[in-house]
Amino acid sequence: MRHLLTSIRRTPYQSLAVFSSLFLTLFLSLLLIFCLNFLYGLLGYVESRPQVTIYFQNEASETSINKVKAELEKSGKVESVKYMSKNDAYSLYKQLNKDNPLLLEMVTPDVLPASLEIFAKKPSYLPEIANYLNTIPNKDEVNFQKNVVNKLLSLTSIVRTMSLAFFIFLMATTIIILMTITHFKVALKKDELSLLRLMGASVGYVRKPFMDEAIFLGFVSSTVVYFLFAAILFLLYPSLQGYLSGVSSLFIDLGSFQLTVWPISFMYAGGLYILLTAFGIGIAALATHFATDKYLAIHRS
Questions:
Q1: Among 168, 196, 218, which residue's Cα sits nearest to residue 295?
Q2: What confidence score (pLDDT) does residue 56 get?
Q3: What local confidence, expressed as pLDDT, does residue 22 receive?
């Protein structure tokens, strides 16, 4: 560690330039990852809501409604179908308006319609399900969230593509900048490195000080970025909580388990830090390896 700090003090401006480049790259990368995770969480939340709801007229019997429910379940295109009777609808209405007695006096169970809440297995099945429900007799209304789902899917796809392109450009630019700075640092120590090679020092031994410094700066920059980002989120938390007041949680489906994105879980926060630190160290080490490899290739015995 002492040798490492001495090396940084000898070239403070170059080390600061490396830190600044890594800081900017890691901060923007973390912001992109968080925004994408947030969008995927919102998409998962929307898809977990009843995506198609059919309301029936008073003439519709419970037997006919259950027949529609059975047909939907046999189609293989729905995750689940929930039947809500008039009494169930009235209980929900009372719960939502428990602080407004006037509204409760104006409504009875007979006024509210029975309904089916349909969850599709895939968003692409929604139009077909909605078209089928529109042919059902004694229906009152079919509520289809097509626009909401499609817009969120389009937005997520666009953001993902743009983020990937920007991330590749950012990573390539950072590697080039770090390679240029490391080349300059190698040039400053050219005589010392040449002497080490003449004395029989291995390639790994000559490269080690540069790699140690790169790993150290990658770790420091990723840690600073993470805690700065956490501080910003802490300041914005009340606003985000108010904006998402009706949303209990947002999560990403990873197959075997669900990773909670909001409220931010300990597992998600820890995973972000590990990923960011690995990326910071990796990109710094990769750029340093490429930069020193050119010099060592020329002086390889």
A1: 196
A2: 85
A3: 87
Residues 115 and 69 in one domain: yes
Is residue 159 exposed (0-12), middle (13-18) or buried (19+ Cβ within 10 Å)? middle
For 122, the 3-state DSSP assignment is: coil
287-299: b (≥16 Cβ within 10 Å) or e: bbbebbeebbeee
Helix (H) or strand (E) holding 218: helix 203-243
- Which residue is listed with tokens 């429900």? 133
- Helices (H) and strands (E) counted in the chain, each on its own, are 10, 6
103 with 162, same domain?
no
Do both 168 and 290 map to the same domain?
A: yes
- Domain holding 264, by residue range, is 2-47+150-298
**Burial category of 182 from C-beta neighbours within 10 Å (exposed 0-12, middle 13-18, buried 19 and up):** buried
Domain boundary among 83, 112, 144: 144
First CA to last CA distance, the chain: 30
156 and 111, same structural domain?
A: no
- The reported pTM is 0.63
Question: What is the amino acid identity at position 87?
Answer: N
- The tens digit of pLDDT for each residue in 45-55 reads 666 555 688 88
- Label residues 196-224 b or e (16+ Cβ within 10 Å = b): ebeeeeeeeebbebbebbbbbbbbebbeb
List the chain residues with pLDDT less than 50: 301
* Cα–Cα dist 119/139, whole Å: 18
Tokens of 230: 């956490």
Domain identity same for 59 and 43: no
Same domain, 292 and 164: yes
